From TrEMBL:
Substrate binds at residue 161. Binds 2 calcium ions per subunit. Binds 1 heme b (iron(II)-protoporphyrin IX) group per subunit. Belongs to the peroxidase family. Ascorbate peroxidase subfamily. Belongs to the peroxidase family. Classical plant (class III) peroxidase subfamily. Its EC number is 1.11.1.7. Disulfide bonds join 32-113, 65-70, 119-320, 198-230. CDD domains: secretory_peroxidase. One of its GO terms (biological process) is response to oxidative stress. It comes from Ziziphus jujuba var. spinosa. Residues 1-21 form the signal peptide. Its cofactor is Ca(2+); heme b. One of its GO terms (cellular component) is extracellular region. One of its GO terms (molecular function) is lactoperoxidase activity. PROSITE patterns: PEROXIDASE_1, PEROXIDASE_4. This is Peroxidase.
Length: 324
């Protein structure tokens, strides 16, 4: 009988995701009891001063998780001997406010409980709290991640969805990480806050074809507004526009309501509304914010566990932008 129980326990250990089993909501309760307060104070001060921080941090978290897992590898600064993830072409537009809020929290945590809290946990918790702060749903974030020890720009290309990709390509990137089409659409709802640079959609509003100057998927008046906003793009490549022109600083479902009206900014936004695999979910989330929030919650909880390092798989960095 004892042998049978042992075999059953061994089987369960194999079947259960080891990384998920090692994350705990109260991981820092004894080691760093002020963890939650420091995170809350840091993000509150930063968001009040720089209202784009929530969107910036959410985007940084998504970019970080999708390459080598949620291990803060995107925070690493390049050296003469290594070009890090943050210097890959697609990551050059990641806003500085996202990096800054993590560094600020890490500085305070190192003063309070040195060598205890990982940058990966700071980024995961700060993202959740910032999303909640701007009206989004609260979701569970288990803690106990270690920081990754690899960060290479060469690993980024092809592992992050680009707004110019076809829906087939984007769905494949998510599928290769175990995410369904519905989860992909829910995570795309992150565009309800934040902005996109003109360079990411400029081809859709200028010289679309010989017969049409603008991609017909855009609302004509909206396209005119985008052209005006991006008029100086050749001289100023940092120009950008809000992804959700209705409530750009509030996490809600208006992003999905905008898509059928031709008010999506990116090619991938239009793709979500036109592809038969994704359109039903766009309609569902546009008509029911509760459904969107529930789906986003499940998808973010799942994403926050992707490729995490625990135990001896990683380290607790002394500073977030460099390996120990």
């Amino acid at each position: 009988m004892a042998m049978l129980v042992l075999l059953l326990l061994s089987s369960l250990a194999v079947l259960s995701p080891p990384s998920e089993a090692r994350l705990y909501n109260n991981y820092y309760a004894r080691k760093c009891p002020s963890f939650n307060k420091i995170i809350q104070d840091t993000i509150t001060n930063k968001q009040i001063t720089n209202p784009s921080t929530a969107a910036a941090t959410l985007r940084l978290f998504l970019h970080d998780c999708f390459v080598t897992g949620c291990d803060a590898s995107t925070l690493i600064t390049s050296t003469p001997f290594n070009t890090a993830e943050r210097d890959a072409d697609i990551n050059l537009s990641l806003p500085g406010d996202a990096f800054d809020v993590v560094v600020r929290a890490k500085t305070q945590l190192e003063l309070t409980c040195p060598g205890v809290v990982s940058c990966a946990d700071i980024l995961a918790a700060a993202t959740r709290d910032l999303v909640t702060m701007v009206g989004g749903p609260y979701y569970n974030v288990g803690l106990g991640r270690r920081d990754g020890q690899v960060s290479k720009a060469s690993l980024v290309e092809g592992n992050l969805p680009r707004p110019t990709m076809s829906m087939d390509q984007i769905i494949q990137i998510f599928a290769s990480r175990g995410f369904s089409v519905q989860e992909m659409v829910a995570l795309s709802g992150a565009h309800t806050i934040g902005f996109s640079h003109c360079k990411e959609f400029i081809s859709g509003i200028y010289n679309y074809s010989k017969t049409e100057q603008t991609d017909p998927q855009y609302n004509p008046r909206f396209a005119t507004g985008l052209k005006s906003a991006c008029a100086d793009y050749p001289k100023n490549p940092t120009l950008s526009v809000f992804n959700d022109i209705m409530t750009p600083n509030k996490f809600d479902n208006l992003y999905f309501q905008n898509l059928p009206r031709g008010l999506g900014v990116l090619k991938s936004d239009h793709g979500l509304n036109n592809d038969p695999r994704t359109k039903p979910f766009v309609g569902l989330y546009a008509s029911n914010q509760t459904e969107f929030f529930q789906a986003f919650t499940r998808a973010m909880e799942k994403l926050s566990l992707y490729g995490i390092k625990t135990g001896r798989q990683g380290e607790i960095r002394r500073r977030c932008d460099a390996f120990n």
